[in-house]
């Protein structure tokens, strides 16, 4: 299980109980960082693929490439040839939702609402996980 904690310089860090979870934690705190819009994108793409509204989605950041397919979220570290992670979509969504809550708890009042409203206006649709967010 991945948990999120405050790092020594007020930046999010992750802790894990299973080595196989490290790629997802590193991806979230390293590439998604504290950008609510990026996290909302990842959540939407993952849910859209999980629900069959999209066949595949992808994202490339500073160090990670993310591929969202019906068989899971696949992460590949572009800086290291041998660091990758593969997660069931439901499990990836659950961890990303915990990261969303962590960011909200460490942000100003109303952050969740502002980020979600901004995302929905930009994409001209409700976020597929709006009721959960």
Give a verbal description of the structure.
It contains 4 helices and 6 strands, in the order ββααββββαα. The chain is α+β, with helices and mostly antiparallel strands and 133 residues long. The protein has one domain (2-123). The protein has a 4-stranded antiparallel beta sheet. It has a two-stranded antiparallel sheet with strand order 1-2. The two termini are 20 Å apart. The mean pLDDT is 93.
Topology:
Blueprint (H helix, E strand, L loop, with lengths): L1 E5 L5 E5 L5 H11 L3 H15 L6 E4 L3 E6 L2 E6 L6 E4 L1 H17 L5 H13 L10
Antiparallel strand pairs: 1-2, 3-4, 4-5, 5-6
Helix pairs in contact: 2-3, 2-4
Please identify the structural class as seen in this structure: alpha+beta
The total of helices stands at 4
Span from first to last CA? 20 Å
Helix content: 40-55%
Q: How many E strands?
A: 6
Shape: globular
Strand content: 15-25%
Spatial order of the strands forming the largest sheet:
3-4-5-6
Whole-number mean pLDDT:
93
Largest beta-sheet characterization: 4 strands, antiparallel
Question: How would you sum up this structure in a few lines?
Answer:
The chain is built from four helices and six strands, in the order ββααββββαα. It has 133 residues and is of the alpha+beta class.
How would you describe this structure in keywords?
two-stranded antiparallel ribbon, 42% helix, 6 strands, globular, 23% strand, alpha+beta, 133 residues
